[in-house]
């Protein structure tokens, strides 16, 4: 039975959504086309009608995952407009986020994998990372040009690295301390030299 164009596009979007979660759980090379298509409730035979290659899907899924993650940062910030960075830090550097393998930050889940992918996947990650940096730059009031600020880059690096390390260990106390130490470092660094903010709790 022939699938309509509308249904075909819905199927394509479903595959991208599902792949964005399954790639975060298994890695780009940890799941094949069959598993991805089964996860979307579709047969493998229709894959090449929707995507040029697995890398094409990986690029699309990475873009979707980063858009979703960015929306979560914005939602966290909107929940506390007087301290958007503090709200984002509380969400991102939490044990709950540590456990979100399928829905958590794609930079944490797939950053090292992305480094071994082609230019399209890297381009999706670069675009998403730049959006993170732009948002952080606004929150720490340290943007004076088109290039991302050093402070925003240091904060993002600290936050991503802390979640990676917290997921890499079995010891729950050590895992939690990585997150706590990063949160303290980020919030201290963000207010350093800004007399109006004063020390954060």
Any overview of this molecule?
The protein is 70% helix and 0% strand. The protein has ten helices and no strands. The radius of gyration is 19 Å and the shape is elongated. One of its GO terms (molecular function) is DNA binding. Residues 9-69 form the HTH tetR-type domain. Keywords: DNA-binding, Plasmid, Transcription, Transcription regulation. This is Transcriptional regulator, TetR family.
Secondary-structure blueprint of this entry?
Blueprint: H1 5-26, H2 33-39, H3 47-50, H4 54-78, H5 84-92, H6 95-99, H7 106-114, H8 119-139, H9 150-168, H10 172-191
Quick recap:
By secondary structure, the chain is mostly helical. It is 70% helix and 0% strand. Residues 195-201 have low confidence and may be disordered.
Largest sheet: none
CATH H-tier superfamily of the domain at 61-191 = Tetracycline Repressor, domain 2
Element-by-element helix/strand order: HHHHHHHHHH
Structural class of the helix and strand makeup?
Answer: mainly alpha
**What is the strand tally?**
0
CATH architecture group name of the domain at 61-191 = Orthogonal Bundle
The average pLDDT is 90
The CATH C-level name of the domain at 61-191 is Mainly Alpha
Tell me roughly what share of residues is in helical segments.
Answer: over 70%
Cα radius of gyration in angstroms: 19 Å
Task: Please identify the oligomeric state.
Answer: single chain
pLDDT < 50 stretches:
195-201
What coarse outline follows from CA principal-axis ratios?
elongated
Fold-level CATH name of the domain at 61-191: Tetracycline Repressor, domain 2
Number of helices: 10
End-to-end CA span: 62 Å
